[in-house]
Every structure is written in C-alpha cells, then in structure tokens.
Amino acid sequence: AVTRTFSIIKPDATRRNLTGAVTKMLEDAGLRVVASKRIHMSREQAEGFYAVHKDRPFFGELVDFMISEPVVVQVLEGEDAVKRNRDAMGATNPAEAADGTIRKEHALSIGENSVHGSDSDDNAKIEIDYFFQPEEIVG
Ligand code: CMP
C-alpha cells in the first residue's frame, strides 16, 4: 500500500550541504517528498520528539546534536514508505550500513548519522503530527 513516513535530515548533513544529495537518494528509492521544511529545533521540541529515549545514556548528546544546527523535516510517501525509507537509510551505525545506503555514503558516526526515519506506521503518524499541520502536506 502507498503509505507515509517521517524523515529528518540531521545537522551533520545540512551542515555539509547534503540536503539535496540525501533527498535525491530518498527519491531514487521510490519515495516522494510531500512536505518539507528547514527548521532549527528548540531544546523542548527535540526533547519531546526523542522522549522515548530519555533514559538512554546518549539522550543529552542526542538532543544537543539535534539542536546544534538546522534540520530538514520531511514527509515521504511511497509504497511501504516506512520500510522503503529504512532500507534507503541503512543501519543506525554507519559502520554496519550496507553499501549504497545514505548512512554508508554520508554518515559520520552512530550519533551523527545524517538521517532519521520512523520505525513503524504508528510512529510515522505520531512523528508527522509532531512537526506538520495537515495543510502543510500536499500529496
Ligand atoms: P534516530 O533514528 O534519530 O533515533 C535515535 C537516535 O539516537 C539514533 O537515530 C542515533 O543517531 C542516536 N543514537 C543511538 N545510539 C547512540 C549512541 N550510542 N550515541 C549517540 N547517539 C546514538
């Protein structure tokens, strides 16, 4: 089925002017950008988005990184969008990511790993709603 997922192009990628390169890899994977905006997240916004990780040892580092520079938040649409996007991203740790994936090509480390993608349809809906109003999504 055609579904939607939520993506973030992270600060390590926007900083290196890779917004277009990453978006091209998503498009080449069969995903369509149906909403996109460049934002500089507030600390509160980042802490809320990553609340599920708040007890992890890397939480502080993760939030500091995500607010260090602008990010690009996107809604992606395509056949099985969550899986399609996760396949295009590759493993969280770039050292384990397959050849040709975004993280293999561009990520710097497990933290500075260039992209975020929702891990389920339910979380995709929650994450899309966290950053976008319905009228900002134009399919
Ligand atoms: P993301 O998909 O955005 O969701 C949680 C993030 O935590 C994950 O991507 C990683 O970038 C980050 N992360 C996971 N493990 C570590 C770690 N050991 N150190 C720093 N960041 C991490």
TrEMBL record:
One Pfam match: NDK
Active site: H116
Cofactor: Mg(2+)
Domain Nucleoside diphosphate kinase-like: 2-139
InterPro entries, per database record: NDK-like_dom, NDK-like_dom_sf, Nucleoside_diP_kinase
GO CC entries: cytoplasm
GO function terms (MF aspect): ATP binding; metal ion binding; nucleoside diphosphate kinase activity
One GO term (biological process): GTP biosynthetic process
Residues binding ATP, per UniProt: K10, F58, R86, T92, R103, N113
Function recorded in the entry: Major role in the synthesis of nucleoside triphosphates other than ATP. The ATP gamma phosphate is transferred to the NDP beta phosphate via a ping-pong mechanism, using a phosphorylated active-site intermediate.
Family of the protein in this entry: Belongs to the NDK family.
Name of the protein in its database record: Nucleoside diphosphate kinase
